[in-house]
Amino acid sequence: MTKHRDGLMAGGALVVVLVVLALGFHRLGPRANQRAIRADERRIEALQSVALQMYFRNRRQMPMPATLAELPQRDRVNLNDPVTDAPYEYHPKSATAYELCATFAADSGAPDEPRLHGHSGFWSHPKGRYCYQLDAAQTTEY
Predict the structure, then answer these.
(1) Order of all β-strands in the sheet with 128-135
(2) What is the number of structural domains in the chain?
């Protein structure tokens, strides 16, 4: 009877482990989705770096550049999409306001929704082309 009970417990534990693994793999999705999510994370990191450089330029009372290519070489961050190699879009709006745009492979989720990968809050984004409205006089969530 004890062996039977031990066998049932071991079988039950095995089922629980297999179910948890299956749910985990289901939540992660296929490899292509994971690559897309990692590419989106690299896009966000690049846009955050640009925003930080703009903030520091403003603090040093330097004017906004007309294009991202005008950022000094030592301050240059990756200005091209990691998949398409297309440059990120940059549109100056005023003395300190500007817009940064990128095309994302996946929806990052709602700003207040916990995520498995990526960023939340200000840097949340939908799938497709999305533009962030930024101001070099203010910091954002980095």
Answers:
(1) 89-92, 97-104, 128-135
(2) 1
What confidence tens digit (pLDDT) does each residue in 30-86 have? 666 888 899 999 999 999 989 999 999 999 999 999 999 888 766 557 889 999 999
Rounded distance, CA 97 to CA 58, Å?
11
- Owning domain of residue 76: 34-135
Dihedral sign computed on CA atoms, order 77, 81, 86, 90: negative
Which of 60, 100, 67 minimizes the C-alpha distance to 81? 100
Kindly report whether the global pTM for this prediction surpasses the value 0.85.
Answer: no
- Using alpha carbons, list the distances in angstroms from residue 69 to 20, 26, 61, 74, 119: 48, 41, 19, 12, 26
20 located within any domain: no
Tell me how crowded residue 89 is: count the other CB atoms within 10 A of its CB.
13
Rounded Cα–Cα distance for residues 53 and 109 (Å): 26
